[in-house]
Amino acid sequence: xxxxxxxxxxGKRFLCVRREELAELAELAEIxxxxxxxxxxxxxxxxxxDNPQLMVYVEFDDLDWDKREWVKVHEDYRxxxxxxxxxWAWRKDTAQPQGSKVVKQIEWPALPLLLLRRQEEEEExxxxxxxxxxxxxx
Length: 138
Fold this sequence. Notes:
Blueprint: E1 13-18, E2 37-44, E3 55-60, E4 69-72, H1 73-76, E5 77-83, E6 87-92, E7 105-118, E8 128-131
Antiparallel strand pairs: 1-2, 1-5, 2-3, 3-4, 5-7, 6-7, 7-8
């Protein structure tokens, strides 16, 4: 079961990688080592996400709420992923006792992420998801 996607950008979660934080020829196979940042979009300059002048007012998870900033999605970022809808996804049950030989899978709320900005053609198939209680300290 999935909840229908909201068309607006404001209030949605995102994952992104700044252009200068990746080596020019960063390998897609090394995606887990890229310097990802996450947060929430608080405002936008345009309703059309394809507009090359699009700027978004973001609140990054790793900064205090009063450190929000305007960013240029199509100029400053190599990858900018935006939540699409809430779904149920299977993941490993972290509440299992250690040493258990059976890996139990449970359903968990997750946000599939859609590509809003990409710099390289090789990233065309890039997508991702964020589970309901996932957090990553940078």
